[in-house]
Amino acid sequence: MIAIERIIDGGEELFLTAGIKSVTMDDIAKHLGISKKTIYHFFKDKNELVIALVNKKLKEDEEQMAEIISKSSNVIEEMINMMKCSEEIFSRINPVVIHDMQKYHPDAWKQFQNFKSEVLVCTMAQLLEKGIKQGYIRPDIDVKVMSLMRVHQLELGFNPSVFPIAEFNTWSVQQQFQEHFNYGVCTLKGFKLLDQYKNSATV
Fold first, then answer.
1. pLDDT confidence bin for 203, thresholds 50/70/90
2. Mean per-residue pLDDT for 23-28?
3. Distances, alpha carbon 44 to alpha carbons 33, 48, 51, 99, in Å
4. Where are the domains of the chain?
5. Percent of the chain with pLDDT over 90
6. What is the DSSP letter of 118?
7. What is the CATH number that goes with domain 1-44?
8. What count of other Cβ atoms lies within 10 Å of the Cβ of residue 164?
9. Is the pLDDT of residue 99 over 50?
């Protein structure tokens, strides 16, 4: 593994454990067994490293999402798999990391927000539009409104201040959200197909 990838991965390991703010470049150097000078050869400061890490993770998530959707056999399955992929993306994010990124690394936070609006929301809107053409999704819905709602709904489900972990199972919350959304946007034709997937052990 080349040095820059190793540094990004090492930073990610520490950030996910302790948050971004409390981790120093010295910590990352010690964790990797390299000199701090080596890190500064590739990144001028921690903020630049955080931006590189966010770029790497978002690119990986986008590729994973495209691959999952491409393997789906119809738009209903695409929508279900897209949502599962989105859930995985949000579930990997440590709330402390999100807080630190938002407060101390605004450029990285902006990239994450752009990813939500430009990739997650747009992909969901495209799926809904495809579903309308195929007769599975209601033609009277506003696809942009529904797509924005769904992405923010995912984020809400992982918010411990709204759904405390001691009281709610995170994945049960997401399942409730997903079913509510799916059945709300589907036509009768889509409703029947959703029931088939719900009752099938393969999906």
1. very low
2. 96
3. 19, 7, 12, 23
4. 1-44, 61-198
5. 50
6. I
7. 1.10.10.60
8. 9
9. yes
Residue 93 and residue 20 in contact, taking contact as beta carbons nearer than 8 Å? no
Domain 61-198 has CATH 2.40.160.40: no
Let me know: does 96 contact 19? Beta carbons within 8 Å. Answer: yes
| Residues sharing a CB contact under 8 Å with residue 163, sequence separation 6 or more, in sequence order | 156, 157, 170, 173
| Token code pair at residue 98 | 């999100």
Q: What is the pLDDT of residues 76-97, one digit of tens each?
A: 888 888 777 777 776 776 778 8
Distances (CA, A) of 150 to 2, 86, 122, 147, 184: 38, 10, 11, 5, 11
Instruction: Say which residues have a Cβ less than 8 Å from residue 160's Cβ, sequence separation at least 6.
Output: 95
Does pTM top 0.70 for this prediction? yes
Among candidates 190, 163, 187, which has minimal Cα distance to 177?
A: 163
